[in-house]
Amino acid sequence: MSTPIIEVRDVTKAFGGVVANRAVSLKVAEGSITGLIGPNGSGKTTLFNSIVGHHPIDSGSIRFAGQEISRLNVQKIARLGMLRTFQQTRVFSKMDCVRNLLISLPHRDSEWRDMFRPYPAELIERAHQLLEFVGLYSKRMLVAGSLSFGQQKLLEFAMALMNQPRVLLLDEPTAGINPTLINGLIDRLKHANADFGITLFVIEHNMRVIMNLASHIYCMSRGEVLAEGSPEQIQDDQRVVDAYLGTQ
Amino acid sequence: MSLRLGLTPRTLAGHLLLLAAGIAAPFLFPGHTIQFAVFWVFVLFALTWDIMGGQMGYNSLGNILFFGLGMYVCAVAQIAIVYDVAQYTAANGAIRVDFSRNEYFQGLALGVVLSALIPVVVAAVLSWILFGLRGPYYAIGTLGVAIAAAELTNSWNYVGGGMGIAMPVFPGGPGMRERFFYAACMVATVLCYLFLRWLYRTRFSLAINAIRDDEDKAEALGLHTARYKMVAWCVSAFFLGIAGALFGNMTGFIEPMETAFPTLTFGIFMVAMTLLGGKGTLWGPVIGSTLFYALREVTWTYLLGWQYIALGVLIIVNVVYFQQGIVGWLRQRRPQWFAAPIEASKDETLGADGKA
């Protein structure tokens, strides 16, 4: 394997006395869809927050395409091309969908004078295409706050795509989405991975979704990486079953 | 429109009509020219407060700082080109008569330029410190800065301390002074309005709206939030500084507590006017300040002694029962009036598939 796009090595993060991540190490290969599962409170979201720079880590190293990023803040990491979506969906609720997408365009090259420019037609066109892609084109003029939770999730996904990241960290993309829409979302995630070349790193509780989506899965429990492997290996791993269901 | 102000023939006609009314006002009611000039300053207060308070979601209670700063910067510059400032302020008005016409206008021009630029620099430095704070902490932090500025000025003898500064006397016949400053205040406010009208149609507007709606999300998308917040405050400071310079000269005598840094009157009026008109809109501050100023004049005339109670009741009713303000309420009732699709810049058009 060439240099992994994300390489987490021995990362420890504690909140007071609670150790949320203990010496976590994992790798995400460029171009892959990698899953992260584990029972509630096992430290998955904490790990995501550490990777994107939301909080400083206590020890260890996080590399993005070979570059150490554990000391960078959220904005700088986002501009490098690593983006995350939130478990509790976050969109700009008083702005319409098109504006939500336009403000999400990549900021990595934006200069001071760019803040006073209008939007070129091609960017507006791309915003429309992405809204079409997630099935929200007919709602494009509505303010994001008036959309349903599931629609806001789709909008947030479209915003992430608008940003053209190299890696997208998705925190429970299917939570709260109508089961009939889940298949459509899985297709779109695979499409984003295959056609836009975006590496996906996905936290997911829905086993059917993650087994279908990911090629490599890490399972966390009590702040540590418990197991890793292909979906089949994870499904057959007794430690994973025990972590979810408890042992005798 | 080449300037991208988004004016249709109808709105352009409306704007020109209002402009004509503004020009006619001091000729129709010559006895009230100064009141009309103060009205324009109030509109500017609300417009500049709304950049951050309405569009960006940062409620500054200390914007009056830039008004007072502009006022003092202009005064010092006007005096300094003729006299030693410390001597002038120490004489307390005794040597103010000797400004020739040229000295006066050169000093005023220099003063207005500096009173725009120095507040911008101060805003940039303060934004570096204060924008680490959010929500109520930011509001209290800015309030603290404004109060501190008033107290510092009050005890700084070089600029007259609590005794204030008697401003150079306007060289011109009776009525000229009023009309001159009326025109200056009106031009400043109209320019501020046009600048914001343009600004709110650029990427800048989307960015500060995004900061208002969810700053963490904006950061997560890689937005240069600190940059936008700083520019927003600098724009406020620029126009408030100019307004301060003009207001000080119009008043003729400036001192820190009541004229330059009146946190409890003008500082609060800025917020109240914007909330009344509807924050986060361009016309909300204009309408709010018009109504507020009219009410203020009426209560000062007919309810003297009770005027602050009347304004207090207005503010309470406004924030408890009418939070969206006049324009916000209109927007809820008549959304089609406000439906503004994003405009593309004209220079690049992609072969659209007809759907977009």
Give a nutshell description of this structure.
Helices cover 35% and strands 24% of the residues of chain A. Chain A has nine helices and ten strands.
**What would you call the shape of chain A?**
globular
- Amino-to-carboxy terminus distance of chain A: 39 Å
Strands of the widest sheet of chain B, in order across it, are 1-2
Average pLDDT of chain B: 89
What does this structure look like?
The complex is a heterodimer of chains A (248) and B (356). By secondary structure, chain A is of the alpha/beta class. Chain A has a domain at 6-90 and 165-245: P-loop containing nucleotide triphosphate hydrolases (Rossmann fold, 3-Layer(aba) Sandwich). A six-stranded mixed β-sheet of chain A has the order 6-7-8-3-9-10, sandwiched between helices. Chain A has a four-stranded antiparallel β-sheet with strand order 2-1-4-5, covered by helices on one side. Chain A is 35% helix and 24% strand. Chain A is globular. The model of chain A has no long low-confidence stretch (mean pLDDT 91). Chain B has 356 residues and is mostly helical. Chain B has a domain at 35-262. Helices cover 71% and strands 1% of the residues of chain B. Chain B has 16 helices and two strands. Chain B has a two-stranded antiparallel ribbon with strand order 1-2. In chain B, 45% of the residues are buried.
